[in-house]
Amino acid sequence: MVSKHFSLAVMIRPDHRKAVLVECALPGALEAVGERWSFLILRGAFNGLAHFEEFQSTLGIARNILSNRLGRLVEHDILRREPDPADRRKIAYRLTDKGRALLPVLITLRQWGEKWISGVPSNPVLVDRQNRRPVAPMAVRAADGRTLELNELEWIDRAELPDGE
Amino acid sequence: MVSKHFSLAVMIRPDHRKAVLVECALPGALEAVGERWSFLILRGAFNGLAHFEEFQSTLGIARNILSNRLGRLVEHDILRREPDPADRRKIAYRLTDKGRALLPVLITLRQWGEKWISGVPSNPVLVDRQNRRPVAPMAVRAADGRTLELNELEWIDRAELPDGE
């Protein structure tokens, strides 16, 4: 009896359980980035770190672990190795488009940590450069922008989508 | 020269670098959930799994690892152990409020995996129960709902926020 507690879970039909619980895209994503140091390296890259030595000294990570994790992120095409334009003997690690697409993942995790772990508003604050107001809380949203809670969600078969989706 | 490539990174002042790169709430969040099996256990809980045996058989995870990860999630108040109402000799693992607040993290990671790893639209599709349309792509948004790209973001000091934030 898995699906007894609808109010505490996303609504799901028995024939969709395997696809959602075993075959979804989450394991693939975790294979690429689901590890503490990988997230912290990405945080550095999003905030302008590019060189091995910068990552090493800023994160205080062991060199062999850093080397391993950078290599894995390059292998997954999340970071790209390129000669530094300022000194072409040096290698810079840059986010690819695929890597930049991880920004919402990091912001969502950070906001959750701020609210539920540290419990204090952190400083500095991430803002929209245009009006200097804080970014909105990350939330699951409907197509029209409404915030959706767990009990407002359902898994349906792609064939059952309304026309035009 | 860390902050040379503004267009590829969030704008950040030198005096904010330590707070953003070392002290932010991300490490705390990763300490609680930044591990592959923890994410997959949470995915199960969000989709109605509650018992040790259900997690074990659905995820195919070794019993000692499952036991360790469930224990850590309980310790971090992300899951709660409680007697199953249907059979009070059995223990059910339920998401707490803090755990349910991780839904956007999982959805964001899954959407990224769908777009950048598996590369095919997955089935079933997560929809808004009210109109059966797919949920919106997770994105960093301004207070007014606009999607913000990396180069539209900036870290500013909390004291510099516009009045009333």
Descriptive notes:
The structure is a homodimer of 165-residue chains. With 165 residues, chain A is α+β, with helices and mostly antiparallel strands. Chain A has one domain: Winged helix-like DNA-binding domain superfamily/Winged helix DNA-binding domain (Arc Repressor Mutant, subunit A, Orthogonal Bundle), CATH 1.10.10. Chain A contains 7 helices and 4 strands, in the order αααααββααββ. Chain A has helices at 17-21, 26-33, 36-46, 52-59, 63-75, 97-100, 103-118, and strands at 79-84, 87-95, 125-128, 153-156. In chain A, strands 1-2 form a two-stranded antiparallel ribbon. The longest helix of chain A has 16 residues, at 103-118. Chain A is globular and about 55 Å long. Chain A starts with 16 loop residues before the first helix and ends in a 9-residue tail after the last strand. Residues 1-7 of chain A have low confidence and may be disordered. The interface between A and B is large, with 105 and 105 residues.
Short description:
2 copies of one chain form a homodimer. Chain A has helices spanning 17-21, 26-33, 36-46, 52-59, 63-75, 97-100, 103-118, and strands at residues 79-84, 87-95, 125-128, 153-156.
Whole-number mean pLDDT of chain A: 87
**Fraction of residues in helix of chain A:** 25-40%
First-last Cα distance of chain A:
32 Å
Summing up helix and strand content along with how strands pair, one would put the structural category of chain A as: alpha+beta
* CATH homology group of chain A: Winged helix-like DNA-binding domain superfamily/Winged helix DNA-binding domain
Top CATH class of chain A? Mainly Alpha
Q: What is the number of strand segments of chain A?
A: 4
**Number of discrete domains of chain A:** 1
For the biggest sheet of chain A, the summary is: 2 strands, antiparallel
At CATH level 3, the topology of chain A is Arc Repressor Mutant, subunit A
List the uncertain runs of chain A. 1-7
Largest interface: A-B, 105 and 105 residues
Number of helical runs of chain A? 7
Give the overall shape of chain A.
Answer: globular
Q: How much of the residues of chain A is beta strand, in percent?
A: 5-15%
CATH architectural group of chain A = Orthogonal Bundle
Give Rg of chain A in angstroms: 20 Å
Oligomer: homodimer
**H and E string of chain A:** HHHHHEEHHEE
Q: What is the strand arrangement across the widest sheet of chain A?
A: 1-2
